[in-house]
Amino acid sequence: MPYSALSHLECSRCGTGYDVRQVQGTCTCGAPLLARYDIERVSAQVSREDIAARPPDLWRYHELLPVTDARRVISLGEGMTPALADAPGWASRSGCPGSG
After folding, report:
1. How many domains does the chain have?
2. Which pLDDT tens digit goes with each residue over 66-91?
3. pLDDT tens sequence across 28-66
4. Quick check: is 1 in a domain?
């Protein structure tokens, strides 16, 4: 299976399809393009357990990201979403409710 299941780009307004191998801007009608993926292929070939066993970073979901070649992955060490941290000083300065 390819690194990404990205199948094509699709106009958000008129539905025109575009090749993902070509650098694209907007559709000829001026609307933004949406990335479309072959979700059925991913679900048939990758299990939840496969994904859970991968490193806890953004790239564990690579089949549903637009980078089509693993050699082009760039990471800044981002991980999974951490728990929220209490920031009472910032909260009181920003006027958030319950910050006093």
Report:
1. 1
2. 999 999 998 888 877 766 677 788 87
3. 999 999 999 999 999 999 999 999 999 988 899 999 999
4. no
User: Per the structure block, which two tokens stand in for 68?
Assistant: 């089509």
Angle at 23 between CA 21 and CA 27, to 5 degrees: 110
pTM above 0.85, yes or no: no
Evaluate whether 6 touches 36 at the Cβ level (below 8 Å). yes
Confirm whether 25 is domain-assigned. yes
Residue 22: domain span = 6-74
Cα gap 51→11, rounded to integer Å: 30
Rounded-to-integer distance, Cα 37 and Cα 29, Å: 22
